[in-house]
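Appendix B. Chain record.
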Amino acid sequence: MNEPVRNDAVERQWAKEHFRSYLLGQLNEDDTERLTMAVAIYSGLVDDLEDVESELIDAYLDRRLVADEYESFERQYVHTDVLDNRAKFQVQRALRSKEVERTIRAAAPVPMSSLRRPLALSLLAASAALILAGVLGGLYYTKSRALDQALAELKVKQVRPGPEIETPPEQPAGSSTPEGLILSAKISGVGSAVVTAPPEHLIWTPVPDYRDLYRFRIYSAGGQEITSPLLNPQNNTITYAVQNSSSLTLPWDVFVLNGATVAEHALAHYVIRRR
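Structure tokens predicted for this chain:
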């Protein structure tokens, strides 16, 4: 074996060994560039990478990740602003639901294994807006008209961030005032609030550090997602005027994020329901 071929084999093997760390965002800048270059140059590596990605998402959904991988995964796929990654996660999660599997088997235009292939997920990722709207039907039009019709009326369950693990019981966390819905920053676990109508303003107080910036992220029952701009604390409080709040279907999942860092994570989680 000549030297160039031997080096190619080494690069291929190195890339495969680091796929998981790459997908979790755990590689340094030099190694990330090296792996990206290998995937671009060597045929077949992109398929191998997509296989590892699909297996990684399944591991998260099955709660098989080790503790320090959960946070990395959520940064890359759940709380990310990269729509392609978010859509891959949402589609693969949706395809695992019993309702979808039964519907797909009934339509039977293509094997389930084909739909679960990472390549199919990559194509479906381009339709992330439809996933967020809660409709699966249009995503599969290239596969089968029968499948498209079967899924057109099937609502995707609301996708919410965070691993599907047991969470502490919800605690009363909100009080409505003329200024808006006040959410206590001292609540641990999941806080809950009951309102008569979607609140026009969200108020979070007291903030952990008045020198930091924060964001609100809202997931509504209708599939809408809204993220606030960076919010600067005033009087140890952050306030957000929710855009078109009346059009966001309750209940809401509201997350407060540390908006000043690249690797944002949730500082608090609240469920807001209608009275």
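Further analysis of this model is presented in Appendix C.
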